[in-house]
Amino acid sequence: MPSYFRTADAGGAAMTRITLSGDQFILFVLLLKLGVMAAMASMLITSSFFKRLVFLDKRDTRQNWQFAAVFGALLTAGTAVRVLVGYEGMDLSLSGTFIAGLLGGAVPGMSVGFFVSMPPVLRGEWLALPFTVLCGFLGGLIRSRAEWREEFWDFSPLILNNLARSWRNFTRGRRVDSRAWITITLVGLEALRYVVSRRYPAVLFAFFPDHFWVTICIWLTTIACVGIPLKIWNNTRVEALLEEQRAAAMQARFDALRSQINPHFLFNTMNAATSLIWSEPEKARWILVKLSGILRRLLRGSEDFVPLSREIEFVDDYLSLEVARFGAEKLRVEKDLDPRSLDAPVPSMMLQPLVENAVRHGLSPKVGSGIVRVEASREGARLRIAVRDNGLGFKETAREGIGLRNVRERLKAAYGERASLEISSTRGEGTSIIIDMPVDRGAPGS
Q: Please, what sign has the CA dihedral across residues 232, 233, 238, 240?
């Protein structure tokens, strides 16, 4: 029970001071430890340098020393505060060095244990050195089991969660998982520290509670001090993995959409050359030569995004094929391009399907000459591209073809809701397709 004292300050006002019992003080320190560990874990994970180190499955020698230096500096500062100032809540030597071994391996863990023990050793607590080195070694020993590399990330600060999962794994596969070994090891280390410091109180620091239930609280706190940073860091790790999977899925979707365009374009162009082989063989030969150059460019370039200027060059090559097929009097090409827009990145093979639609569905059936017009303008961070024709147009209820649907899907995959594709068509007057998109690719949906 706490004792209460009533005293008076210099002005005569009454003040109340509370003195905690030994067990109450220990419980207060344990709460402080939890807060310090949570604050340190949250602070570290904001550093991109630390994130790169902590999530590596394998590290070279330089990275191991960097990892040990980061952990060692913070934990050594905590033991120094305890030794010099007497704030026991800053001493996270057991749980901290164990985490260093668990995430970094035995060598980084033991190195951190060595650094962390220096302030207590200089004070005369010489058993702190072998004890903290042992903590780091045991953490690294658990990490050395390859099948546990993913499992220990799920270690919870709540012991009941760990026991339930461990029991489930034991009943299913008759094996003791990493959570159980971590719990057993941490309780064993705390028990070892208590026994040794009882026998040699001057050479190893430990708490000596009056009641056994406080001893259990010490064990639970040590387990939580390992589980809290693992839980915080694992949340960030899972988010990074999800982002990688999302990027990989988007890349696969992007590649699939692009692979649909290329055969579509190839088929239509080859069909045009075939139709001219008997009537105009020289023109058919020229188309095939031009087509081979286009395909060579497609095979060389696998970029998902290219400058608009390169996309315009590709469209020019394609339109030259169509002009050769239909004749200059049947098909005329116009361009109105803002020079500021030419360097903006756009999805590769984005304009060709739109121009192909304008020629084949808008102008090809039309009697008389037709015009395809390509426009591009830039206003601040937005890029506006338009493909217009004065062809037959179509009804609003007409279904989108493969090329148009593909372009729409690629814009959605690349930019999310930040890009739009609008179609306006008047029967007998022509069609306009307008793309509004950001210059900066950024993240889809952001």
A: positive
Q: Are residues 419 and 370 in the same domain?
A: yes
| Percent of the chain as helix, strand, coil, to the nearest 5 | 65, 15, 25
The pTM of this model reads 0.58
| 413, β-bridge pairs | none
Pull the structure tokens for residue 153: 């990330």
Q: Tell me, what's the pLDDT at 1?
A: 39
pLDDT tens digits, 109-126? 999 999 999 999 998 889
Nearest to 425 by CA among 445, 406, 444, 399: 399
Q: Is the pLDDT assigned to residue 150 strictly greater than 80?
A: no
Structural domain count, the chain = 2
What is the identity of the amino acid at 182?
Answer: I
Do 183 and 117 share a structural domain? yes
> 283: Cβ–Cβ under 8 A, 6 or more apart, which residues?
276, 324, 325
Dig out the tokens for 248 from the structure.
Answer: 């990989």
pLDDT value of position 7: 44
User: How much is the CA Rg of the chain, to the nearest whole Å?
Assistant: 35
Other Cβ atoms within 10 Å of 95 Cβ, number: 26
Query: From CA 212, how far away is CA 144, in angstroms rounded?
Result: 34
* Domain encompassing residue 96: 20-244
Question: Do 179 and 62 share a structural domain?
Answer: yes
The band of 3, judged by pLDDT with boundaries at 50, 70 and 90, is: very low
Q: Are residues 86 and 215 in the same domain?
A: yes
